[in-house]
Amino acid sequence: MGAAHSASEEVLELMGKTGFSSDQIEQLHRRFKQLSGDQPTIRKENFNNVPGLELNPIRSKIVRAFFDNRNLHKGSSGLADEINFEDFLTIMSYFRPIDTTADEEQVQLCRKEKLRFLPLGSCCSSCK
C-alpha cells in the first residue's frame, strides 16, 4: 500500500469507497498478501488454498463473483484474469452489514448493490 504519507491518503480513499475502517483494511491487506503469495494481484487459483472454501457447495460461484467485471464496476460482462487489492476490497465490501445510521436512500442503494452481486438464482435450487 505504498509509502507512509501516501498510504494514509490511500487508506482514507479506500475507507470512503468501501466503508471499512483503517484497521479492517489493514487486516484485509494482510489476508490479500497471504492469498496472493505477496504478489500485487490475485488469480482464481489463489482461492484453492482457502480453508473450508473447497467444501462450500457454491465455491465456484463465490470465486467467480470475485472476478466478475460487473462486480468490479469494470464493464457489463466477462471475467477478469486477476484482481488487485482495491478490487478485492470492493468485493469484500458487499459482505459488510448495512450501516444502521444510513438514510433510506443509502440503505436502498446498498441493498441494490448486494443483490446485483449475486446472479439471479445462484444461491440455491430452492431460491428459483
TrEMBL record:
This is Tescalcin. GO terms for cellular component: cytoplasm; nucleus; ruffle membrane. It is found in: Cell projection, Ruffle membrane; Cytoplasm; Nucleus. Its main location: membrane. SUPFAM superfamilies: EF-hand. One of its GO terms (molecular function) is metal ion binding. InterPro entries: CHP3, EF-hand-dom_pair. Keywords: Calcium, Cell membrane, Cell projection, Cytoplasm, Lipoprotein, Membrane, Metal-binding, Myristate, Nucleus. Belongs to the calcineurin regulatory subunit family. CHP subfamily. It comes from the Eukaryota. The keyword Lipoprotein applies. The keyword Lipid metabolism does not apply. PANTHER family: CALCINEURIN B HOMOLOGOUS PROTEIN 3.
